[in-house]
Write a structure and sequence with these properties.
This protein has about 350 residues and is α+β, with helices and mostly antiparallel strands. It folds into 2 domains: about 90 residues; about 230 residues, Bira Bifunctional Protein, Domain 2 (BirA Bifunctional Protein, domain 2, 2-Layer Sandwich). Helices cover about 40% and strands about 20% of the residues. It has 12 helices and 9 strands. The strands form 2 sheets. Strands 1-4-5-9-8-7-6 form a 7-stranded mixed sheet, sandwiched between helices. A two-stranded antiparallel sheet has the order 2-3. Helix 1 packs antiparallel against helix 3. The longest helix has about 40 residues. The chain starts with a helix and ends with a helix. The mean pLDDT is about 90. Bound molecules: phenylalanine. The site of phenylalanine has 11 residues, from strand 8 and strand 9.
Length: about 350
């Protein structure tokens, strides 16, 4: 094979190899193989000494043309490969702007807060204001001033968390009645929502911490019919217009007469079911006319003033309204539960 043929066969081989290259590294390898200092074309040129002098310029020319051609092929291939890489990268980095975004999560009120806000709205609409008292109370406000005698079972260590002889965790919101009477002259119309504590065993319907809302109305000429009218209006606002209610005689040391308020069962409407223990009624609050002893201890003239009070647990209100069967859910803060409200 003479040198001209050699160059021609190099050309054919190179054309074929360059056509199939599909990455830049391989292209560089081939460039070195054919055009490098020790490459195949140089190799042919080194053999020029062996051929007659007059043939050398022709071979030189062919070799240079081949070099130029291969350089051009390499350049074209390089552009082609770079373009491919760029396209591939663009495809990979493409952002799908039609995907819905991950918006910020909006929080909401705890179901117990939602309920107490509803309760507050009803009473504010009736001209009540909101009163507050501390969760650590004196024994005097929690019991004594509420006409709970010294040996009354409610004072029992089993029910009450005592801090010392004088202080305890309030067992109901009724001490806010005493604080209100001490601070304010009649007419008085307040409700007092808050946390209360009893040393109950934790189960589906009992929690050592739960929530009550107290109501207190004191004025001239307040009678039991005011109590009934107010509570009826409240019950219908919260549980619906068609809810019936009844007042059942009861006993509390700080009211006389006293009444337990029942509403027709939320589940069966009065026919009788498991929730209402087949009575058709659910107990929702305690109430009564403020006991004269309480008014007198607060320094009010019972010939002029009278009033009524009521108190209810609103954990239970929320449970009944939302159909929740376990009070512990309110305190566990499991987001799967809270998200439902
Ligand atoms: N404090 C009573 C209780 O905890 C409820 C109540 C309040 C009853 C006001 C009558 C008047 O059960």
């Amino acid at each position: 094979m003479d040198l001209k043929e050699k160059l021609q066969s190099i050309e054919k081989e190179a054309e074929k190899l360059f056509k199939d290259v599909d990455d830049l590294d391989r292209l560089e390898e081939l460039r070195i193989e054919f055009l490098g200092k020790k490459g195949r074309i140089t190799d042919v040129l080194r053999q020029m000494g062996k051929i007659p002098a007059e043939e050398r310029p022709v071979i030189g020319l062919i070799a240079n043309q081949l070099k130029a051609k291969l350089n051009e092929l390499i350049q074209l291939k390089m552009n082609e490969l770079e373009e491919l890489i760029r396209e591939k990268r663009l495809a990979e980095e493409k952002i799908d702007i039609t995907l819905p975004g991950a918006g910020p999560e909006i929080g909401h009120y705890h179901p117990l807060t939602q309920i107490i806000n509803e309760v507050k709205d009803v009473f504010i609409g009736l001209g009540f204001t909101i009163a507050e008292g501390p969760e650590i109370e004196t024994e005097y406000n929690n019991f004594e001033a509420l006409n709970v005698p010294e040996h009354h079972p409610a004072r029992d260590l089993q029910d009450t968390f005592y801090i010392d002889d004088k202080y305890l965790l309030r067992t109901h919101t009724s001490p806010v009645q005493i604080r209100t009477l001490a601070r304010q002259k009649p007419p008085i119309r307040v409700i007092a929502p808050g946390r209360v504590y009893r040393s109950d065993e934790l189960d589906a319907s009992h929690s050592p911490v739960f929530h009550q809302v107290e109501g207190l109305v004191i004025d001239k000429d307040i009678s039991f019919s005011d109590l009934k009218g107010t509570i009826e209006l409240f019950v219908k606002a919260i549980y619906g217009e068609n809810r019936s209610l009844r007042f059942r005689p009861s006993y509390f040391p700080f009211t006389e007469p006293s009444a337990e308020v029942d509403i027709s069962c939320i589940v069966c409407g009065g026919k009788g079911c498991r929730l209402c223990s087949h009575t058709g009624w659910l107990e929702v609050m305690g109430s009564g006319m403020v006991h004269p002893n309480v008014l007198e201890m607060a320094g009010l003239d019972t010939r002029v003033y009278s009033g009524f009070a009521f108190g209810m647990g609103w954990d239970r209100v929320a449970m009944l309204k939302y159909g929740i069967d376990d009070i512990r859910l309110f305190f566990e803060n499991d987001r799967r539960f809270l998200h439902q409200f």
